[in-house]
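Re: Re: token formats

Sure, here are both.
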Amino acid sequence: MISGMSIDYFPSSLEFVPARLNSLLKELKMTPSEFDQYADNHIFFFYPLTEAAYYSSGSESDNELERYAVSKGVIRQHPDKQYLYDNFGTTWFKNPVGVRDTGNPLKGVEDISSYKWPTAYIDDLFSHFASNDIKSEYLYSCGLQHLTIWERGFLLLGYENMLLDLYLNPERVNYVMDKITEFHVELANEFVKTETDSVRIGDDYGTQKALQMPPDIWRKSIGPRLKKIYSVYKGAGITIMQHSCGCITEIIPDLINMGLDVLHPIQPLAMDIKYLANEYGKDLTFFGGIDTQQLLPYSKPEEVRSAVRQCVDILGRHGKYIIAPSQEIMLDVPTENIIALIEAIREFRAI
């Protein structure tokens, strides 16, 4: 099930980097809507104009959205058309393969007290999705609220500086994280107004093998601020998904205690799916699990089918699972494996 909904099959969701989806649509001769029906994608994802990283591919449709966001004063155009500034002033390179930041506006800045912090209380924050009849075409809607406390912090300060400041200059980094939290609490309030079913809060805490910081530092610096965002959604009865790449096993109990409903993504080469199912399967809905690092790019279609079966058996043991790859499907995944994935989901999705 998706948290808060009882259904008699496991829903599914396939996400792609823009370039791979575009090439696949051309190959299959489908529109995006036709592909969603073919692939049985059940979740409609939408994002606010503030999430410039979602429209920085450089495609004409994204460039059009960029111009719209600029006209609303949400982001700024960069002197070089290959880049754009998001609402926090971070520079992004327009990249169809995947988002990439190239500039940290507070890196090396000693006095940050005069920095102009953005607000989420702006008009037409979600107007670019107004034409989509979400409820009639999809089972579930999910807002994307990514680049929150940790990631936005190092996008502003620079990654090494952010890590050092946690230990050497906590007053500075706490000020930055507090300002980021204020913005995301505002954004959470705006998401609530959309009456979305869920929101996926994105903040990468893990590496392939462990957290990027000791868990006690996470609990002291990130956890209490993240809980403020969670509280907005818990008060509104909106399902909370948490996105974090990598291994975050050590803080999963903390997230559950804060009110987490859905854990995304489950990366089987970073976290043991059997352990997750045994320890947290009764508390969480798992989202992901089908490996994109080795399996989908390099294995044979029958191995993909077998992996889907395994994920359903293990992660779906308690009836709370969203069948999906562990990350976006990249350019290195062959079409035959994507088709095998879709066919296997159809075959094995029954609860």
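Second one below.
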Amino acid sequence: MTVAVIVDSSSAITPGLAKEFSLHLAPLHLMWDKDEYADWVDMTAEEFYMRLQTAKTLPTTSGSVQGEFMNLFENLKSEADGIVAITLSPNTPSAGYDSAIRARELVEGIPIEVVDGNFITSALGLVATAAAKVASQGGSLKEVVEVTQRVIPKTYTFFNPGSISYFIRGGRISASDVESKEDSHIVSQKEGKIVPIEKYPTRAEARDRLRDLLREKARKDSPLHIGLFHAQAKGEAEKLASEIKSAYNCAELWIGEASPVVAIHMSPDSLGLAFYNE
């Protein structure tokens, strides 16, 4: 059986990574000055931040992307016997999961499973790469879904936004949950929701804490799967990747990037990681 794996673009999976892991990207959409843009198709992260510097209005996430999932489902019918679509959690304010469910109901002739990926950014990306690996080895639709269910509960994710104010402005974090927007925060996810868990006076201290959290949670007695992501902090991400590669037995290590839709809530100079042990 040939199973195609789709993941939405909130996963930090760039088009290049999608090709490397044999994944299919479902682009989420943003609205800016009454125009609609699809992640990585109509706008790149670099283009997003360049425009943001001089923008008089701020972008917002768009509504349903049912059409994107329908197009992917229909196109994949000719090359796959089944499809697994992995989306960000419906607990995160986004239409991705519901759009995939509605699209599935309208597409006939192929079995489709829609998985609540529980996460965003590289944690969601890791769920997808695990599924893609099983699919590439000839796994059944059931086996591909099962691996996502094994990976999700053992995955850790932590990130340090360049500024927590982007999350507050977009409504992903309540201002009441943050004592001071001037602090540098460590953010994680619980039940699909984005939550601040620690704060530090400086970004340097918060970045060091990311490394500490990896040391505390990741084991060295079994292979480690890790996905890094950044928003205009590629150099830092590459430096961290080099450190991790020399310290751990990495079965998987990649660097992803916040797509334009994620960049609405993720300020420049953001850095994060997600990981799990086999």
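The mean pLDDT is 92. The first strand starts at residue 3 and ends at 8.
- S.
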